[in-house]
Amino acid sequence: MQVLYTASALATGDGRDGHVRTSDATVDLDLAVPKEMGGTGGAANPEQLFAAGYAACFHSALRLVARRAKADVSGSVVEAEVGIGPNGSGGFGLTVALVVDLPAVERSAAEQLVEAAHQVCPYSNATRGNIDVALTVREALAA
């Protein structure tokens, strides 16, 4: 694979209760363990950062496949929900739910576009076979 871009970030402090900063300083955030996991909350966490990245990347992939299909994806929205919990083997695992709104696309076509985007998106390709990813079209035109 020819690498087109490389992102670099540094984590410091106490891991999930620490700090992250990208090499260009466009991301510069304190981190905190969520209250639901016994932490103090009140700051970003790795699951939020993963959700934001996946949502943006998937939306880009969706717009790419829509252009190829000449589909109108105006007003489209992608929401990514990332869950974390024990994996039963002493570690932790993630789950992902991608919820897509395609208000200008008929439901069956919307579902086809979402599935096509799932084949194109780098996050989907990286997680396939490792993380359960649920795809849902929440809003679309009725047939």
Structure characterization notes:
The protein has two domains: 1-44, N-terminal domain of TfIIb; 46-141, GMP Synthetase, Chain A, domain 3, CATH 3.30.300. Helices cover 31% and strands 35% of the residues. It is built from three helices and six strands; from the N terminus they run E-E-E-H-E-E-H-H-E. The protein has helices at residues 46-69, 107-120, 122-127, and strands at residues 9-14, 17-22, 28-30, 77-86, 92-106, 132-141. The strands form two sheets. Strands 1-2-3 form a three-stranded antiparallel sheet, with no helix packed on it. Strands 4-5-6 form a three-stranded mixed sheet. The protein is globular, with a radius of gyration of 17 Å. The chain starts with 8 loop residues before the first strand and ends with a strand.
Question: Major β-sheet, in short?
Answer: 3 strands, antiparallel
Helical segment tally? Answer: 3
Oligomer state of the chains in this structure: single chain
**Proportion in helices:** 25-40%
Can you count the beta strands?
A: 6
CATH architecture of the largest domain: 2-Layer Sandwich
Q: What global shape is seen?
A: globular
CATH topology of the largest domain: GMP Synthetase, Chain A, domain 3
The H-level CATH homologous superfamily of the largest domain, spelled out, is: K homology (KH) domain
What is the beta-strand fraction? 25-35%
Structural class label: alpha+beta
Contiguous runs where pLDDT drops below 50 for at least 5 residues: none
Number of domains: 2
Largest beta sheet: strand ordering: 1-2-3
Distance between the termini: 40 Å
Give Rg in angstroms.
17 Å
CATH domain class name of the largest domain: Alpha Beta
